[in-house]
Every structure is written in C-alpha cells, then in structure tokens.
Amino acid sequence: KKHDDDEEEEEEDTGPPLKEDPEYTKYFKMLKMGLPMGAVQNALLRDGKDPTIMDLDPEKSVEFQRNSGGKKKKKGKKKGKKTKAEKEKKEKKLKVRRKKLFWNPIDEGKIKKHSIWYKVKGAVDMGKLKYDASEFDSLFTDTSNPADKKKKVGAGDSSSGPKQKKSTQVIDGKRGMNGGIILARLKMEYSVIANMVDNMDSGKFDATQLRALQEFLPTDEEHQGLDSYIKSASTSEEKKKEAMDDLCACEKYMVAMMVVSESASKFDCMLFQSQFECSLKEIVDEIIKLSNACKEVRTSSRLQKLMAVILTLGNHINTGGTGNLASGFSLDALLKLDEAKAFDKKTSVLQYLVKLLKQNDESLIQFKEELPTVAEAGSVMLDSLSADMKQMKEEVEKVKKTAEKEGNRLRREAKEKNITVAELIAEKADGSNNNDQTDYKDKTPMEVFSLNAEVEMNKALTKTDDVKDSYGEVLEYFGEDEKMPSNEFFGTINKFISNFYAAVEFVDKMEAQKLKEEKRAAALQAKHEKKLAAKKAREEAMAGGASEKSAMAASDALSADFTEGGDRPKPTLAAAAAAASLKRRGSKVDAKNGFIAAAVAATKKKAEEENGPPLGGIAAMAASAAARKKSVNDIGPPAGGIA
Description:
- The structure is a single chain.
- By secondary structure, the chain is mainly α.
- 63% of the residues lie in helices and 1% in strands.
- The chain contains 29 helices and 2 strands.
- The radius of gyration is 51 Å and the shape is flat.
C-alpha cells in the first residue's frame, strides 16, 4: 500500500523537469559547454539562487522534489521490489551520453542538386571506414551514472577541489574562459600589464594582443560585481588573499585593471601608436601610386598617338571621314571598341585597330610600356584616401589630448616628489624628432609620439592635396567629368589595356593561321601543276610518241642503270626501246649512250626473229616514263618488262 502511495505521488509531479525549468536552463547549458560544477554553483550564488539546486534530480520539477522529499522515499524502498517506472528511469540515467558538435545544419529543403551536399549525400559510410571503435567511444561517449558525478562534486575530492576553487566567481563563464586563454598566451603578471597600460607603454605587444586585452577590460557591471566581491572578503588580508585566489585568470586581470584610470582611452592610444607607422605608410604608398599614374597618362606619347588613331578610325567608321566629325570621345568609348562588330559579325573594331597599327606603326602596340603604374592605380580611391587621412588626423588629435592629460597628471605627481617624469615612469622620453622647435623635455613617451605623428600627418596631408590637384588636371586633360572617381578612371584604362592585348593576341593567331594556309595552298598548287605536266607528257606519248627532248631525257635517265666506273650489265629492252625511238626521230646517239646503240641491234634482231611488235609507241612510252626522272644522277630500278 505504501508502494502504491509513492507511485501516486510521482504521478502528481506536473511541473517541468529541473533541466527544462526556464529559471535554471542556462545553468544546465553551462554544464553542457564543459564548465565544472563548481563554476555553475558559483554562478547560481552570484545570481542569488541556491547552489544546492544542482544536487536535485534534473528529470523532476523543483517544486515536487522540495515538497515531497522524493529522494528519501526512493531510498526507503525495499530492494527487489522496484516498479517498472523506476527501472526505466534507472536505464534512462545510464543512457549513453555523447559529445556534441555544435554546428549549424543546412535545411535539407535548401540543398540544391548542384551543391556539394547533394553530391556527397550517402557517399561515406561510417561502418565501412577503418577506425578504432573503442577509441572513438572513449573520446566521444560516456556511460557513467550522472548521480556518481554529483556525489563526487559534493564529496570534496582532494584532486578536483583546488581546480574548482579557481573557477569563475563573478563574470560570465564563457567570457572568463576565453579571457583566460588569451592571458595564458601572454605569460605576464597582471599587475605588470596594468602598469604598462597606465604608462601607455605597449612594450612588445602587437595590435592583436592589445585589442584582445582591451576586449577583456571589465564592464561597468563586472566592475561593480568584482568590487562588491572583494569588499565582502576584505575583513582581513588572509581572507582577501583567499578570495583573490578563488578568482579565475580573467577576473584577476580585471581586478588589476580596475586601478588604471581611463584604461579604455589609454588602450586606444596604444593601439593607434602600434598601427600608426604601418597605416600611414600604406596611405602614402597609395598616394605615390596615384601621383605617378597621373603623370604617366599625361606624358605618354604612345597613348596620345593611339588615342588619335582611335578618333580617326571612329570618325571614318561613323561618317566615312567627312561631315560632322567628332573632336574627341569619353574614355568609356574605349571599352565599346571591343563590343562593336563589323558586318561579318566576327571582326571587332578593336581587332581592326590592331591590324591598322601593325600595318602603320607597330610601336603604338606597346603603349603599355609607358604606363607601368596605371595598373596599380586602378584600385586606389582618392576619396577614400582623403577620408582615411581625415580620420587619422582626428585620431592623432585624440591621442595628443589623452597624452597631454596623462602627462600633466604625471608632471604634477613628479613635482610633488621632486623627480622628473622619466624617473617617475622609469623610462626615458625619446627626444629624436625632425622638429627642433618642439620642446620634448620632461615629456611622456606617448606625448613624444603624438607630436612626431602630427608632423608626419601634416606631410602626408600635403601629398594628398598635391595628388588631388594632379588628378584634377588629368580629368581636364581627357575632358572627363571633374567628379569622376579615380578608381573608375584608371579602371577604365586598365580594362581597355586588357581588351587591347587580348585583341593583339587574337590577331597574331589569325595571321599565323592565314600564313600557314597560304603556304599549304601554294604547295598544293605546285603539286597540282606537276601532275598536270606529267599528264600532258603521257598524253603526248600516247598520241604519237614522245618528243626528241623527252626521248633524250629518257635515254639519259636509263643510262643511270649503269654504275659509274663499274662493269656494264646486259642492255635492257627499255634501253633499246629508247635508242630506237631516238633513231626513228632522226637523232644520233651520243658517245655516252653508245652502249644503248649497241643494244639496239641485238634487241631489234631478236624482235624480228620472234615476230614481235615494232619499236614504236611502246618505245615512246618508255621514253616518256624515263623523262619523269628528276636527273641523270637519280639511280632507280631498271625499266619494266613491257618497256
């Protein structure tokens, strides 16, 4: 019956589970983020809540557990008679907990077919990968009972106790953890950092480190909380020391910075000082680029001649060179040259311009050589430079005021102690400067910097004014609107240069292809003419025999069958036929062909005995074939059997 009553009481718990209670949700989130239980309990204490709330069952409501004392009833139950609900609850507590990878999933409905996520979907199967499953489980899963961990937290274990004491006391846990990471990298006492900031001495800190330190300056709320915490523990030096030891690293840094007056303004000065030289150099370099580019476009003779050719070509295209001719054109027309096509719908005006220059003055094609800085000037915005200079000037003035204010305070303090400012801040003032009239005696380093920075800024401002005048003259030179931005002007020229040399490359390629085709056509024509000549020779031979010239050529060619200086082989029928053809034409066989004449008689006699055909057309054909030989020196195979 008692068991039934207990079961009924649990059914009446209609409140939200502790871990989902809006009043305590954020503390459970802190646990999930990896913060120790001690830090979470301290956060509860800071917010005026009972830290023992974390010892309760997170699956039950706070009101139910406090009113019913459910924990005690659970202990009073007999072993072996647990209800089904209790068993399920125990299994639930022993459920595997997993580490979470906090990413932002993409809505599946937003994944397109061409996206990487659509392509890799299902491409990798974890079950088919090679990995140590036990190692994975030990790293990313936990099957221990959460109740055991709670007991460890309350047990005051000697190994974990000291670590929990140094947890966050006042500030947000995540902020304290991030600040601790930054401070751990610096490896410097917080009092030393505070002293450096108070004297506006950045030391070896770079801009990134200074910005990080400034980020973790205490806010008004944090300042108030830390101040109250320290005062509450200031009953004795021993308790105050213990209270300070309980603070996290970030909180200790904040406490140290609380004694520095106007720490935020001093950080601004230090940041500006660390970045001033580099920032000013970047601006001055941009000014020099723009100044050089302005000079180049105004003095380039090739650019001037090229613009004249373009103007003439454009007028000729538009009007035929007569009538209402344009006297000039705006720079945007340069980009239209690549867009405008001839009636063949292939050749652009820009390509034709390149051909025109190749035929008339190829030196103009290399006009880019006279504009080496124009490409870099295309990204420079004069208006932006002016704005940056104005902002830097304002910051110099701000730093100067802060430095003077701090310097006056230090001078008053030094005067009271009858020492110099340098002795007071344990650092000599840098007296090196370019302005001999400026008195740097008894100045703080930041005052010295502000005075030198002011001098350098005035020089840069003068250069900025000069380049403004120079660019105005350029716009007037090209007849452009005086409000045209510098990056637009030089950007247009750079785009034209890019289009122009792309057209040059295209024209060169087309001309090379044309030359190749012409050579090929010439070779084909020569081959065709050779075939026609051979065909004509054959036709003449078939019509009535080869001419005397062809026969002589055949004879000379056939004589190549004999090796010079060697034994003469037996005369061939082809040789006899050639010789016979010569005789029928009434020509004599010269000395070098004497062997042919000797072969004629034997061959003729054999032909008569065998009643063969007369030596007529066939001999002529042999002579024609021999005439196609390149020269007497070409040694080829002997004539065919028919010849």
